[in-house]
Amino acid sequence: MPVVLSKNGRLEQSTAAEKFKSSIFEWAEKLNVEPKEIHLRSMRNKWASLSENGRLTFNTELLDREREICDYVIVHELLHIKIPNHGKLFKSLMFAFLPDWEKHSEKLKVGSE
Fold first, then answer.
1. Per-residue pLDDT band at 18 (split at 50, 70, 90)
2. How confident is the model at residue 23 (pLDDT cuts 50, 70, 90)?
3. pLDDT tens digits for 57-107?
4. Mean residue pLDDT across the chain
5. Architecture of the structural domain at 3-111
6. C-alpha span between 6 and 3 (Å, rounded)
7. How far apart (Å, rounded) are the C-alpha atoms in residues 87 and 15?
8. How many helical (H) and strand (E) elements, i.e. helices and strands, does the chain have?
């Protein structure tokens, strides 16, 4: 699986980016999913996104957030590989893997206003 970690178009080798990348791989294994590509770049309006072809993109601002917030965003996006919507199954799996995920979701909403 190709991994492209970039910030402003350049390869990012920071410790924070490496830890973030490790978290993505750890969660992908736990969730039994395999993203095709992982990118890290500045995003204006989103914390992360998953393209139709399986490309995951995470906002570089996550590198400055707490681990729990990052885990929430990572798990949320990785689950979309299996489940494209936010229905009952999606929420059940979020609760199974991150019981306090709603708290982290609210923190991101408040922090981005």
1. confident
2. very high
3. 999 999 988 999 999 999 999 999 999 999 999 999 999 999 999 999 988
4. 86
5. 2-Layer Sandwich (3.30)
6. 10
7. 35
8. 4, 5
* Residue 5 phi, psi (nearest 5): -105, 110
What ranges do the domains of the chain cover? 3-111
Q: If you ran DSSP here, which 8-state letter would residue 65 be given?
A: S
**Predicted confidence band of residue 30 (pLDDT cuts 50, 70, 90):** very high
CA distance 22 to 86: 25
- Around 93, how many Cα atoms within 13 Å sit in the side-chain half-sphere? 19
What are the φ and ψ backbone dihedral angles of 34, each rounded to 5 degrees? -135, 95
Percentages of the chain per state (helix, strand, coil), in multiples of 5: 50, 20, 30
Q: How far apart are CA 45 and CA 109, in angstroms?
A: 11
Residue that the structure tokens 């957030």 belong to: 65
Quote the tokens at residue 3. 């991994």
